[in-house]
């Protein structure tokens, strides 16, 4: 249980919580997180890159790009920080913290098949040396790239309007149009274990080779109004993937849910008044991180191997819980 006796600046010590240090009480939100070896880095929306200090349980300043950031990816030991259409991508050395500037704009980034991809407006660009870039127009000029993820030999690109596929040779094919246009269509999409997962409002589209599109998220009808809402993104772990949901109701709370072969399972919920900006799976520490809109961060244990929670001493539990079971007809009881 986390306890604060002031405005939320200081909290009781616990292994589930770490104050996000960025200019004091944490007013900056995380836009990206990456693990390099045993180290975890985050980028916030002010353009700072911070490194998690396991000894002090704090995030310490590692590099400052000096301009607002929108995304971060890891590529050949470099932390690539996107700044949108106004500033070139920053390259931060993950050992020294040295910053150099690339000659390309991007709002979202992804890495696939050895190439670094960036997207801004309706232009997707890629490079294999961070020097020479190839631009590919995706869809009409009046739509913007929201997310990108690899799948096989292709890269999938989502705009507010549709999902597109960039095939070898820079051929662009339409995959499907969204039911309605939204800036949430494709936000934080990714490839996890060979499957592309694409959040879009209150749906989660699974795309894989040789299979039809499938909506995996159909929980809104079975969730209370304080838990149902808009999917903010998805992360993959060694065993499952996890989505986070921002509530549609003002009195709701942001929650995250994991999916495996047994269906969806509740993972965690944030305090009221906080929304989830980003999540990250740190395989080196067997931890899932949740970063809030207020700049706070939580972590919890997530085993990287298949193990029984009952015999795993690191497993954490809530003091209470709810089990939802199938319905049955009362007339069958004797």
What key phrases describe this protein's structure?
single chain, 334 residues, mainly beta, four-stranded antiparallel sheet, 0% helix, 46% strand
Rg over CA atoms, rounded to whole Å, is 20 Å
How far apart the termini lie comes to 43 Å
Tally of strands = 28
Approximate strand percentage: over 45%
Provide the helix percentage.
under 10%
The biggest sheet, with number of strands, parallel, antiparallel or mixed sense and barrel status, is:
4 strands, antiparallel
Mean pLDDT: 85
Spatial shape: globular
- Run of helices and strands: EEEEEEEEEEEEEEEEEEEEEEEEEEEE
Number of helices: 0
Catalogue the unreliable spans. 1-6, 12-25
Q: Biggest sheet, strands in spatial order?
A: 1-28-27-26
Structural class: mainly beta
Question: What does it look like?
Answer:
- The chain is mostly beta strands and 334 residues long.
- It contains no helices and 28 strands.
- It has a four-stranded antiparallel sheet with strand order 1-28-27-26, with no helix packed on it. The protein has a four-stranded antiparallel sheet with strand order 2-3-4-5, with no helix packed on it.
- A hairpin with a 3-residue loop joins strand 3 (39-44) and strand 4.
- It is globular and about 70 Å long.
- The chain starts with 16 loop residues before the first strand and ends in a 33-residue tail after the last strand.
What is the gist of this entry?
This protein is mainly beta. It has strands at residues 17-18, 30-36, 39-44, 48-53, 58-64, 71-75, 78-82, 90-93, 99-101, 108-112, 115-120, 123-127, 134-137, 145-151, 154-159, 162-167, 171-177, 190-192, 195-200, 203-207, 214-215, 229-236, 241-247, 255-260, 263-269, 276-282, 287-292, 297-301.
């Amino acid at each position: 249980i986390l306890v604060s006796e002031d405005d939320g600046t200081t909290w009781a010590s616990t292994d589930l919580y770490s104050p996000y240090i960025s200019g004091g009480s944490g007013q900056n939100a995380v836009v990206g997180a990456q693990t390099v070896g045993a180290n975890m880095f985050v980028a916030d929306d002010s353009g700072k890159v911070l490194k998690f200090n396991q000894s002090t349980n704090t995030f310490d300043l590692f590099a400052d790009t000096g301009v607002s950031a929108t995304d971060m990816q890891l590529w050949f030991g470099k932390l690539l920080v996107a700044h949108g259409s106004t500033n070139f991508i920053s390259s931060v050395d993950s050992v020294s913290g040295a910053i150099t500037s690339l000659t390309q704009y991007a709002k979202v980034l992804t890495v696939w098949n050895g190439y670094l991809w960036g997207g801004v407006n309706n232009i997707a660009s890629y490079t294999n040396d961070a020097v020479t870039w190839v631009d590919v127009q995706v869809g009409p000029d009046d739509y913007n790239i929201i997310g990108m993820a690899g799948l096989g030999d292709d890269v999938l690109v989502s705009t507010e309007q549709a999902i597109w596929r960039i095939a070898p040779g820079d051929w662009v094919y339409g995959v499907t149009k969204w039911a309605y246009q939204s800036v949430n269509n494709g936000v934080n999409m990714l490839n996890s274990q060979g499957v592309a997962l694409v959040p879009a409002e209150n749906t989660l589209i699974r795309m894989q080779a040789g299979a039809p599109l499938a909506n995996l998220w159909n929980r809104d009808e079975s969730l209370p109004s304080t838990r149902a809402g808009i999917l903010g993104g998805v992360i993959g772990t060694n065993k499952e993937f996890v989505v986070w949901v921002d509530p549609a109701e003002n009195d709701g709370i942001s929650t995250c849910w994991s999916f495996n072969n047994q269906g969806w399972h509740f993972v965690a919920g944030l305090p009221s008044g906080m929304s989830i900006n980003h999540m990250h799976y740190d395989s080196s520490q067997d931890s899932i991180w949740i970063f809030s809109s207020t700049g706070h961060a939580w972590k919890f244990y997530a085993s990287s191997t298949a193990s029984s929670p009952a015999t795993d001493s690191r497993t954490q539990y809530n003091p209470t819980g709810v089990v939802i079971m199938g319905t049955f007809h009362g007339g069958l009881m004797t």
